[in-house]
Design goal:
Blueprint: H1 4-7, E1 12-16, H2 22-29, H3 32-36, H4 46-59, E2 64-69, E3 72-79, E4 86-90, H5 99-111, E5 115-120, H6 124-132, E6 136-141, E7 144-149
Antiparallel strand pairs: 1-2, 2-3, 3-4, 5-7, 6-7
Length: 151
């Protein structure tokens, strides 16, 4: 279970993503620093992202939330309904301040089911974040650590 005390931050909330968030979600997800630590470093065009994003919102294949700090958008977190996999990306100014921990904790609480995270073994910041939220290591393969959290 997630220890809320370790992730409590004031004024960090999740709200459902809107069609109008498309470009900022693309910017967060495809920022060079985010891609550098991603399991898939591929950068897609804004046009390809926009098509995927519109379809993803329409199909409702799991929640996508915009992370807000003091009502200002600072990142995105989503959970895929098919496999419970969580994905998070933060604006550079939001990193390293516990916002990711709070967003992950809130997303998992809202989801209520099993959640899986896949993190590069050398991505210490993300690994520490998921571990602080109570995720447990399920295994490691080809430089990717798999984590899980029971709902």
């Amino acid at each position: 279970m997630i220890d809320v005390e370790t992730v409590r931050l004031p004024a960090v909330t999740l709200r459902p993503a809107l069609a109008s968030d498309c470009e900022r979600v693309w910017q967060w997800n495809f920022a060079p620093a985010v891609r550098a630590v991603s399991g898939d470093p591929t950068i897609v065009s804004i046009a390809s992202h926009a098509a995927w994003y519109a379809k993803r919102l329409l199909e409702e294949r799991g929640p996508i939330w915009v992370i807000e700090e003091h009502m200002r958008p600072v990142g995105v977190v989503r959970i895929d309904a098919d496999d419970g996999r969580i994905s998070i990306a933060l604006d550079a100014r939001a990193r390293g301040r516990g916002i990711g921990k709070r967003a992950i904790a809130e997303a998992c609480r809202e989801w209520g089911g099993r959640v899986v995270a896949k993190v590069r073994a050398d991505n210490r910041a993300s690994r520490s974040c998921f571990e602080a939220c109570g995720f447990r290591v399920a295994g490691e393969h080809d430089g990717i650590v798999s984590y899980f959290l029971e709902g």
